[in-house]
Amino acid sequence: MRFLSCLVALLLSCSVYGKSEKPTVILLSIDGFSYEYLEQHKPANLLALAKSGTVAELLPVYPSKTFPNHLSIITGSYPINHGISNNNFYNPTLGEKYVKGAGKNNPAWLTAEPFWYVAMQQDIKAAVYFWPESEVIGKTPTYNVPFNKKDSNKARFTQIIKWLELPQAERPHFIASYFSTVDNAGHHYGPRSKQVAKAIADIDKLLGEFVSTLANDIDQEVNLIIVSDHGMIQVDKNKAIKPSMVFDQETIKLIKSGAIIVASNDTQQFLYFNPLKLKQPAEQLQVIENLKLKLVQQQSSLYQLYAKGSYPKHWHLAKDITLVPDIIIEAIPPATFVKEKYNKKLTITGTHGYDPKNQKSLAGIFIASGANIAKGIEVEPFENIHVFSFMSELLNLKEISTIDGNKKVLMPLIMKK
Description:
By secondary structure, the chain is an alpha/beta fold. It has two domains: 2-234 and 357-413, Alkaline Phosphatase, subunit A (3-Layer(aba) Sandwich), CATH 3.40.720; 240-347, Gyrase A, domain 2 (2-Layer Sandwich), CATH 3.30.1360. 32% of the residues lie in helices and 18% in strands. It has 14 helices and 18 strands. Strands 6-5-7-1-8-17-2-18 form an eight-stranded mixed β-sheet, sandwiched between helices. Strands 11-12-14-13 form a four-stranded antiparallel β-sheet. It has a two-stranded antiparallel ribbon with strand order 3-4.
């Protein structure tokens, strides 16, 4: 507790955030860090930051997968508007299935502007050390370290300090970085595992060292924002959904012929009708009816079936565009979709991607502390699309009218000097 108190004192002192004219925003994402972990594991340095600023539940957008949520955070838009609608999905306009990081080969995958690009257009240098789609053609940050599996968490913090130590003319004033170790542990061992506890302790220790360096060595106004894209749910190996439990024989034939394209995730199946092979509305409707009948026959409480035009409002899939799947088959937690040869040996113990509504374990974290952030303001749980506008206000950027986020949501946290 003594170290925690000292850290809070550092955070509240003027020396922590310096006296430079232009503020700096540092955005750190701890993938898979559930809001529940704050109470369960009591990470001292994260809690110290929360005490010196603010903390709230950060609600993921649907689906609660890594790529759509990181893109929603960094573009201020729902997945249907930024283009990355799931970790795995099909884009009928491009005629391809998405591969993570595909923007580095074709920028058309991303249909909204990332925050670093918006900042650069307004004469602010930006640096990114790992972030989904940071390599998108034509919109890469001023300084960018592409994703790889070798670089340690410590290396990321070290590089951020190096960026902050650059000469003023070269120094970035927006920095983002991504950390996956907590998410990895949650997937492999489950959210209640000792491995998750260790991963949280490790990243919290590094964060404490990083904040101390900011306090002692960096003479700048810094606003530190820590987020997570989603939480984690323990899966049940006895609630596995095989393709034969979902698809009737006629639908399987259509899938094999290419009349229906399936993009599979462990928490949902996105189905798209191929208009070249399944043209008639009556044919498409028959597919839906067949799948409904299969669901009734299974008497299953493992999944739900939805058709385009009837998706839940909070999924934000009301647009009548080709990117919206024609059918979504949604697993009910803690069930997951598996391959037909599944033998009750799941390769994962925890997962995410489910509809986040009413799933407390899927809520992420939002912690903000800094020179321009008010202390002790209570914030109700909010969707991650609003982080973009908050950062824009901190950096005095011009408002972007095309985003879904609303600057009013977090405006009470802004403390302009």
